[in-house]
What does this fold into?
Amino acid sequence: MALICLAGARAGAAEDTGQGEAPNGQSGLAVPRFVSLKSDRVNVRKGPSSDQAIVWVFSRAGLPVEVIAESDNWRRVRDSEGADGWVFHSLLSGRRTVLVAPWTKDHASVPLYASDSENGKVVAELEAGVLGNVVSCDGEWCRLSIDDYAGYVQQEKLWGVYRGEAIK
It folds into this structure.
């Protein structure tokens, strides 16, 4: 069994398909929705313009963020810590990723199971903040790929997917 550790965090066509049921933004895609960052360096601005001050910089490609508003080619995004700001749309990707239990501060691990059951074999123990690629979700479990590992995590232990959301 492996323990997969957090590697790299935040230092301070472009988007996904929509969720379906949420109201659509200017782009025609659902708001809110989850997307991921395309680059290791993404400036987050105070407002929807390159004239606005940079309030922090994301430094982790693939990090999931939630689009909570749209203004022309700008997207207001929120991260797993609740911080929000504006990002240019072309710096976002429709690739779905998740963070494993980023709210956990006590070093508890989350099991990655071989099947979508708590009775399944544990493939790896995932530390809080591990970044995974979403293969699919059924509303209760998500199949993830993380480095050389693949398996299932309970959806409620992930940030980057909505409760009950199905992803195919």
About this structure: The two ends are 28 Å apart (CA to CA).
